[in-house]
Amino acid sequence: MTLRSTVAIAIAAAGLALSTVTFADGPTAPNAGAAAPAGTYKVDPAHSGAFFEIGHMGGISRFMGRFNDIAGDLVVDAPEKSKINVTIKTDSVDTNHDGLNKHLKSPDFFNAVQFPNLTFTSTAIKLDNKGEGTVAGNLTLHGVTKPVTLKLKHIGAGKGMKGEQRVGYVATGSIKRTDFGMNYAVPGAATDEVDLRIGIEAIKQ
Fold this sequence. Notes:
By secondary structure, this protein is mainly β. 4% of the residues lie in helices and 49% in strands. Keywords: Signal. Residues 40-203 form the Lipid/polyisoprenoid-binding YceI-like domain.
């Protein structure tokens, strides 16, 4: 079972005509979707999360889990200067079942002792004037680094309870766990393909 994590595969192109608006530009809807002011932001772990979904027993059902420890930062600027960096602790995998969590942390899957971090570092960000587009980058999982492209959506921007500037984005995509050396019981225990959803809320520094 595993991963959906960190991050992956392009859902790109099927007709998504992306413009060269900045990462800071978002949909023009009221507060939800307000443009994000340029600057450096730090991920708020209390309001961010990485979720994965995978087919169980060759695909007889869909199974979901999450990672509870997520950190990182964003640079909101012109496209060529914008960045997203995310680090997830593999030991924080949570399926709401202690036995399964233990197995996922073992060498059969994430091998959390040897590979404690799952990381994603962007290399290119594109958003259209509706705040929708893609983020391409390098995903490191299980000691393997591969390029991936995720669908990216700017959710909104606004002030927090203490007046701090906040922004929100969601990245979604799919990866194959075997591409990262996670070959255990494919597809008998869990399918190769893993769907990923990463929700980020970040605070301007």
